[in-house]
Amino acid sequence: MSLLNVTGLCAGYGPARVLHGLDLTVEAGEIVVILGANGAGKTTTMRALSGLIPHTGAITLDGRPLDALSAPQIVAAGISLVPQGRGTFSHLSVLDNLRVGAALRKDTAAIAADIDKWCAIFPILAKRAGQEAGTLSGGEQQMLAVARALMSRPRLLLCDEPSLGLAPKIVGELFDVLADVNREQGTALLLVEQNADLALRLASRVYLLEVGRVIAEGDAERFRGDESIRRAYLGL
Ligand code: ATP
Predict the structure, then answer these.
(1) Of 65, 93, 106, 199, which has the fewest CB atoms closer than 10 Å, so is most exposed?
(2) Ligand 1 centroid distance, CA of 217 (Å)
(3) pLDDT tens digits along 23-72
(4) What is the top-level taxon of the source organism (predicted)?
(5) Is the pTM of this model over 0.90?
(6) 132: DSSP letter
(7) Which phi and psi angles does 27 have, rounded to 5°?
(8) Residue 226: left if φ>0, alpha if ψ -120 to 50, beta else—which one?
(9) ipTM of this predicted complex?
(10) DSSP readout, 84-117?
């Protein structure tokens, strides 16, 4: 059984249908990337999986149906989202943002240990612990957004364009942390990323989205190595 199993996912905004029956899976501990042009429906997919917009079709995590759950219940079930464009609480301190990420947990000592851990991984978060999140740079906010999402100890982390607007050096650091989290904690990642080369280095499997449908899927290696696929689908 896959960790995440999505079948026939349809979602949109009011009368505007964006996703037209998406099927996808993520195995436990796997890194999967969704690629596609602007407007293909990548963010909409992430929102539907997080319970932020209504959908039809079926979403299960470890066989458990998530379709009737609210967004907080989905976090409690084990899926956490790093939204596009940071999505930190700008008027809360860095520390309070991390605490909010753990709002559904009761293990106080482990929460404090996790905060220490993330402050060690991203030293800037320790340095800015008492500062309002909105005063951080874009890169620092993205690190906070990732750390906050991981504070719920998800089994599956959804990351919507984590590299957007960041300097290449920061992107490299962030992707290294995502790879570490996957390797060391076994957290599965479902990533939306415009930077196809970067994403294909991290991911083991790929879904290509076009106007709300999966038009191709396969091993990242195949997409990395095949010039015709790269030209036809990835514009590389
Ligand atoms: P991008 O790479 O540009 O972020 P995407 O693949 O993530 O693109 P989505 O953000 O999922 O695409 O958008 C898919 C379609 O849904 C687009 O046509 C977009 O205009 C539309 N859309 C997105 N958000 C809304 C909204 N809140 N209300 C109405 N339409 C929306």
Answers:
(1) 106
(2) 21
(3) 999 999 999 999 988 889 999 999 999 999 999 999 999 999 999 999 99
(4) Bacteria
(5) yes
(6) B
(7) -85, 160
(8) beta
(9) 0.95
(10) TT----TTSBHHHHHHHHTTT---HHHHHHHHHH
Instruction: Please give the backbone phi and psi of residue 51, each rounded to the nearest 5 degrees, phi first.
Output: 80, 20
Closest CA to 98 of 69, 121, 78, 71: 121
**Atom of ligand 1 minimally distant from the CA of 212:** 14
Residue 50, both tokens: 């997080």
Q: Are 3 and 30 in contact (CB under 8 A)?
A: yes
Ligand 1 binding pocket includes 18 (Cβ within 6 Å): yes
Within the chain, residue ranges assigned H as helices are 42-49, 71-77, 94-101, 108-121, 123-127, 138-150, 168-185, 196-202, 220-225, 227-229
Residue with the smallest CA separation from ligand 1 atom 11 is: 41
Query: What is the DSSP-derived secondary structure letter of residue 136?
Result: S
